[in-house]
Amino acid sequence: MRVMLADDSVLFREGIARVLRDAGLEVMGQAGDVAGLMELVGAAPPDAVVVDIRMPPTHTTEGLDAAARLREEYPQVGVLVLSAHVEPAYALELVETGAHGAGYLLKDRITDVEELVEAVRRVGAGGLVIDPGVVAQLVGRARAHSPLDDLSEREREVLTVMAEGRSNQAICQRLFLSPKTVEAYVRSVFTKLGLHQGADDNRRVLAVLAFLRG
Fold this sequence. Notes:
Layout: E1 2-6, H1 10-22, E2 26-31, H2 34-43, E3 48-52, H3 62-73, E4 78-83, H4 88-96, E5 102-106, H5 113-124, E6 128-130, H6 132-139, H7 153-163, H8 168-175, H9 179-193, H10 201-213
Parallel strand pairs: 1-2, 1-3, 3-4, 4-5, 5-6
Helix pairs in contact: 6-7, 7-8, 7-9, 8-9
């Protein structure tokens, strides 16, 4: 898989590049700002881009703006946005602008090398990635008479993992449950929340996130 990186910190970029190369990914190029990133992508579009949410010149939402441009100009390129803080609104904005190949991950999470590499691979393959911290904040948000109150503790655990963009198989591995048990929990969660159970992982994640943000 071919990857490009964008962050104004050279040391941070080099650290991610080394991790990805060690995992067998090809790091095609690095940039310190959005202009440099777009130039690189325009010359040779990669499978995935990893971009910091805050970069020069304003250090606000340059990464999100870059993701939007890439979605419009290079829809085949997956984008993983890294953030130093849990910002659910930004995460939801990112994944809802495209039903595939998008992700939002906290920078603290990249200390887990396997987590970072898996996230890059998933967005590069067209999947969705939502940081567990964002999902936990949405699931735990207090709302009056929420259908979430009807979920059992185990169903909440399944919902949390599902909303991160994980497949049923990944839920099995995370929660140490059998495939049939996970399928039963997923059906129960969707029934209690009144959501349509989409055929693919991306659609069901979007459905869950749409419910959680409501």
